[in-house]
Amino acid sequence: MNPPVDPDVRPRGDGEALLARRMIITSGVAALAAVGAAAASSAAFGPASTISLLPDGASPPVTPPSTGSAPRNTPVPTTPTPSATSTKPPATKNPTGGTNPPATQDPRSPATANPPADRDQSYANPGAGTGATPRADTPSAAKPATKPTPQKGSTAPEFVSTGVADNDQTHAHLLARATFGPRSSDFVDVSTMGIDKWLGAQLAPASIADPDGDAAWAAFPLAKSSTAKVRSSVKQYSWDAARQTGQATLAAQVFSKRQLFEVVVDVFSNLLNVTTPSDSVWATGPDYANSVIRANALGSYAAMLHAAMRHPAMLTYLNNEKSNKVNVNENLGRELLELHTLGVASGYTEGDVRNSAMILSGRGIDYETGEFRYRADRHYVGPVATSFFADENATAEGGLDMGDRYVSVLAHHPATAATVVRKLAVRFVSDSPPQALLDRLAQTYLDNDTAILPVLKQLFASNEFWSAIGEKARRPLEDAVGSARAVGAKPSDKLADGAKNLYWVLQNLGHAPLTWTPPNGFPDVTGAWLSASQTVSRWNLHRSLTGGWMKGLTPPAKLSEELAPTVGQSNSQWIDSIAQHMIGRPLSDTHRAVLLSYLGADGSAEAEAGDAWQVPALAALVLDSPYFQLR
After folding, report:
1. Which of 381, 388, 378, 325 minimizes the C-alpha distance to 353?
2. Under a CB-based contact definition with an 8 Å cutoff, are residues 417 and 346 in contact?
3. Dihedrals φ, ψ of 385, to 5°?
4. Torsion angle, CA of 521/481/473/66, rounded to 10 degrees?
5. Structural contact between residues 369 and 85, judged by C-beta atoms closer than 8 angstroms
6. Cα gap 512→266, rounded to integer Å
């Protein structure tokens, strides 16, 4: 059994660090010191002392510069011109006959500069990919499988055995990672159910009654609409439905009880990113989010990948509907290898990219309905060969099935296993997850026919997960959603207003759901989000939420009333009750003393009812602190 985990002690192992030294929010300047937070709150809540909420003995860390670079092949939004009939694509300058131009003569891997194996790695480990670590050999053959179908959600909780002790510390760690931010009721749930039963229920989201989550989706009626429904409901090329999808996603993250499902959905929405809203997915974005990502998030990656490679949103986003046998567009073929499966450092070549694009040619859309359509007359015919797949590709009519076989080989490839499990481990464990854990998870992925549930079960049962306290920081999305959940915001008739308000705040912070423009998805490591201005914006958001100023995201009762001092409660006990409500745990003696200094109060003295107006400021300072900002 794993030992209990104490967030205030130094973790064992390589790269050990004090809990708060993991908190890097202000580009190497202040690491979330609450001096500025207290000053920012003084104008609204009253005078404040100069304080610091850095953990005991910690100094502000200095962050080296990122070596990340802009991704290739950023798609240009396209606006197809509807044709007279659904059987003909829009006019193109290029003929559809003839032979395909020869593949590139450069056999080198796209990773000739030896970049990191994962885009987040350059943020997490500046300097990675500079040549110190050799690239993998050319991808080996992988066993193809039949095209799977999405799994239905189970109404019976999954069996999970983590072998970890049930205590306040392990509960807090689990809830910090497996939710977008725990509510006070979540601490009660996991304490009552125990870790294993709580996880088992979360991994079978259909087993959890979720009226608040249902209300979140109902507030945005176009967010779960089919392509046909969207096309009949909004003006052509209007972003209304696509934007509602992002806003409904955000609302579900705030209000749904199926928190782990929402977190996993977010991971795969970024792995198979389609910018929503954008011109090319104005009608198809909602269906993509629901029928590709949400339908398969706890199913198999093979099913998700097959669905993505046949979905009009992905095909138009990466310009595959423009691809034909004379002029093959390489965007989808390249990103399928680089981002969705093998990874840029796996050893595939530029020739593989070219053949990947030829294999996928013919996959497009019906321009009258907006639905997927395979166009045999646009499919390249002739032998295709990559370093891990070959086919005679003898007929245009067989091109779709051949492409499915190709996608299946990729989904079951060991390099794809490494890509998928790394995304999950970066989300749930650390910015630089241990290789031994990644290897075990990848083998589980392969042994279970790309099923995602077994990987998650093994991840949550791993020592690496339970010893990774303080090794993740909240990005803007987790900060905003977690703050709304911490203050106890509940659905109301203003739910849509609240989600929209928060969506635009996150848009300004660069992290509104589904809006990342390049095809590589939002970065998921701390180093990608370092900004002093963003820190101040987050502090301001905390004060808006704790003060009840954001319509639609207010708690049932004002915090100043709900958390007012009670008769006989000392100032120290009062501060602890506020912290317990916001983060599920009291503060250390040192940090409690900081907030007492802010109040100018004696900890042992009885708290005064007249100080209740200070609750929003105290609650906001708790949200500013590493106690909340670290996950």
Report:
1. 388
2. no
3. -150, 130
4. 40
5. no
6. 11
Lowest mean pLDDT among 31-45, 71-85, 287-301, 433-447: 71-85
Position 197: which residue type? K
Residue 537 pLDDT > 60: yes
Residue 456, C-beta contacts closer than 8 angstroms, at least 6 positions apart: 203, 264, 298, 424
How many Cβ atoms sit within 10 Å of the Cβ of residue 443? 15
The residue type at 261:
F
User: Tokens 């992925």 identify what position?
Assistant: 445
Whole-angstrom distance, CA of residue 342 vs CA of residue 420: 9
Instruction: Tell me the average pLDDT across 443-468.
Output: 98
HSE, CB side, 13 Å, CA atoms: give it for residue 301.
Answer: 37
> Which residue in the block uniquely carries the two structure tokens 């970065």?
523
CB 299 within 8 A of CB 150: yes
User: Whole-angstrom distance between the N-terminal and C-terminal Cα of the chain?
Assistant: 23
Residue with tokens 């990191």: 116
Q: Do 603 and 566 touch, CB atoms closer than 8 A?
A: no
Burial 39-56 (b: 16+ CB within 10 A, else e): ebbeeebeebeebbbbbe
Long-range Cβ contacts of 184-187 (<8 Å, 24+ apart) = 184/488, 184/580, 184/581, 184/584, 186/259, 186/584, 187/584
The percent of the chain in helix, strand and coil, each rounded to the nearest 5, is 50, 5, 50
Compute the distance between CA of residue 118 and CA of residue 422 in angstroms, rounded to an integer.
Answer: 8
Helix or strand holding residue 41 (H, E)? helix 34-45
Measured from the Cβ of residue 248, the count of other Cβ atoms closer than 10 Å reads 26
Question: What is the per-residue pLDDT for 192?
Answer: 97
Among 134, 216, 119, smallest CA distance to 431 is for 119
Cβ 274 vs Cβ 285: under 8 Å: yes
What is the SS3 assignment for 2?
Answer: strand
Q: Hey, is 187 helix, strand or coil?
A: helix
Cα of 428 vs its chain's centroid, Å: 10
- Residue 228's contacts (CB-CB under 8 Å, 6 or more residues apart) are 369, 370, 371
Over residues 263-310, the pLDDT tens digits come to: 999 999 999 999 999 999 999 999 999 999 999 999 999 999 999 999
Residue-wise pLDDT tens digits, 91-126: 333 333 333 334 444 445 565 544 566 667 666 654
Please list the residues that pair with 372 across neighbouring strands: 365
- Angle at the Cα of 551 (from 546 to 553), degrees rounded to 5? 55
Query: What is the band of 48 on the pLDDT scale with cuts at 50, 70, 90?
Result: very low
Taking the C-alpha atoms of residue 526 and residue 375, their distance in angstroms, rounded to an integer, is 44
Which residues, listed in sequence order, are joined to residue 385 by a DSSP beta bridge? 390
pLDDT at 387 over 60: yes
Cα 440 vs. chain centroid, distance in angstroms?
A: 22
- For residues 522-547, give the mean pLDDT: 95
Name the residue type at position 408.
S
Q: Is the pLDDT of residue 524 over 60?
A: yes
Residue 35 in contact with residue 28, Cβ under 8 Å?
no
Interatomic CA distance for residues 622 and 628, integer angstroms? 7
Structure tokens at 437: 């854990």
- 167/543 Cα distance (integer angstroms): 31
Examine residue 277 and say whether the peptide bond preceding it is cis (omega within 30 degrees of 0): yes
- Residue 302 CA to chain centroid, in angstroms? 19
